[in-house]
Amino acid sequence: MATKKSKNTSSTICLNKKARHEYSIEEKFEAGVALTGWEVKSLREGRAQLVDSYVILKNDEAWLVGAHFTPLLSACTHVVADPRRDRKLLLHRRQIDKLTVETQAKGHTCVALAMYWKGGRVKCEIALVKGKKLHDKRAAEKDREGEREKQRALATR
Predict the structure, then answer these.
(1) In Å, how far are 17, 142, 150 from 103, measured between CA atoms?
(2) I want to staple 89 with a disulfide (CB 3.0 to 4.6 A). Which of 11, 62, 113, 151 is the partner?
(3) 130 vs 22: CA distance, rounded Å
């Protein structure tokens, strides 16, 4: 009798929580990712990190830089696996043009927020962001704490 593998119920592969803390999000985009075979296998195992990753735009193409995909130990031996290689993002021309114009503006950059499965394909949620100042981070934390207190008060009623 064949045994079934338990499927991961969540489609999220990895998140970049640091980006949500460090930047204020202006606009989000969904991009496909061009991957090799070992990378897809590694993503199925959930071995990816988006910490310190960002998107650069060169030659009218978008590239994901700094994402780390840990190669599996059981991967093919004749393929040299580079876990930090630049990966091409698949976006529409209008989206790339918009990102190019906006990132050339002062203070804007483009970062990867999350990777997830959508219809058997890997998608990367990227965002056009602006850096937060220290006082903005403190104000955001204070607002979150106020919301938590409000929820606790309503829950005890």
Answers:
(1) 21, 29, 38
(2) 62
(3) 9
Coil, strand or helix at 80: coil
pTM value is: 0.76
pLDDT of 99:
93
How far apart CA 96 and CA 89 sit, in angstroms, is: 10
Angle (CA) 115 17 120, round 5°: 10
Domain limits of the chain? 12-132
Give 69's contacts (C-beta < 8 A, 6+ positions apart).
Answer: 39, 42, 43, 47, 48, 83
16 class by beta-carbon count within 10 Å (0-12 exposed, 13-18 middle, 19+ buried): buried
For the chain, list residues with pLDDT below 50. Answer: 1, 4-6
How far, in Å, CA of 110 to CA of 113, rounded? 10
Q: What is the CATH number of domain 12-132?
A: 2.40.280.10
Q: What are phi and psi of 138, to 5 degrees?
A: -65, -40
pLDDT at position 2 is: 55
Note the pLDDT of residue 143. 86
The reported pLDDT for the residue numbered 6 is 46
